[in-house]
Design goal:
Number of helices: 12
Strand content: 5-15%
Order of helices and strands: EEHEHEHHHHHHHEEHHH
Radius of gyration: 26 Å
Number of strands: 6
């Protein structure tokens, strides 16, 4: 639908497929209906379309923005396509929204590659759980207190003789496990190559000076967030990632909640995992690998060291 501030009317409501050609025809129709030259601002809610529709419309000279759903306000308990379209149109007219950052093509490509790698990691975790559950149901338990998925544990799994079809099932599981382990090694090597590129090498090395941050985490944070300069303060970045506490207070009653978990869940998980490194080990102690990563400028070394010492 369309909305004009001067008339305060939602009109020309139509249900269209997310095809940029149909949207261009819709805009041409609106222009023909008007006696004056119109300036269009198009927008859609962030979701499964990603940035493809934005790029297609922008290539045809259309001013298009992607709206962050959490900043658009609540329409009501009744949710329909018609109401959603009207809400988006009014948000665009009065600018009561926050636009989603549009990444570069390189950032988008690397981001999708890393997310694909993380999906394979989840598959490996699932296979591990299925193997352990299978052998446990058959009454086999690896030595008490011993770590799983070591060389000795894998040798123990391969020596098990469940017999018949059960043995075939275990063999298939182990083949899938070996395939995923090899695949992850290959994908991680490719991520190291991407991080060594001219566009990412310097910022990745700087982030890797921090305890708990290595190439995978550093590159993921860079391509997921994009331009860090759009956040004037650290608390703005924390709010964007949902790493700030929520609150549900009224009058004299104050109720503190957990973190809001808004925004990019992928980066939030990586940063939380990295932060947990500060709770382990000895305060002030640096591993040989961390010292090697910090062999850059004196300023970066002192900054990373001050964080470690403070925590």
């Amino acid at each position: 639908c369309s909305y004009r501030i001067d008339t305060d009317v939602l009109e020309y409501q139509q249900k269209l497929a997310p095809d940029y050609r149909l949207i261009l025809k819709y805009l041409e129709h609106l222009q023909r209906k008007s006696e004056e030259e119109l300036e269009f601002v198009c927008g859609y809610e962030a979701g499964s379309l990603g940035y493809s529709l934005h790029h297609q419309l922008a290539s045809h000279g259309v001013n298009c923005v992607i709206l962050a759903p959490t900043t658009m306000g609540i329409v009501g308990k009744i949710k329909t396509d018609k109401r959603d379209a009207g809400n988006i149109a009014k948000c665009l007219a009065f600018r009561t929204y926050s636009a989603v950052h549009i990444p570069t093509q390189d950032d988008e490509s690397v981001k999708e590659y890393i997310r694909m790698r993380d999906a394979q990691k989840k598959s490996l975790k699932s296979i591990k759980q299925q193997i352990l559950a299978l052998v446990l149901r058959q009454g086999y338990r690896y030595g008490d207190g011993k770590s799983n998925w070591t060389g000795k544990h894998l040798a123990w799994l391969k020596k098990l003789d469940l017999g018949g079809v059960l043995q075939e099932a275990l063999s298939e599981y182990l083949l899938t496990y070996a395939y995923l382990v090899d695949k992850l090694k290959r994908l991680d090597l490719r991520i190291e190559e991407l991080a060594a590129g001219a566009a990412y090498q310097a910022p990745v090395k700087k982030l890797c000076c921090l305890l708990g941050v290595k190439t995978h985490t550093a590159l993921s944070v860079i391509v997921e967030i994009g331009d860090f300069k759009r956040f004037a303060k650290a608390d703005m970045l924390a709010g964007y990632l949902g790493l700030v506490p929520g609150e549900y207070s009224s009058g004299n009653k104050q109720k503190r909640l957990g973190i809001t978990k808004a925004g990019n869940s992928h980066v939030r998980r990586l940063l939380v995992e990295a932060a947990q490194s500060y709770t382990r080990g000895t305060i002030g102690h640096k591993s040989v690998e961390l010292k090697r990563r910090q062999m850059q400028t004196r300023q970066m070394k002192d900054y990373a060291g001050s964080i470690i010492g403070w925590c």
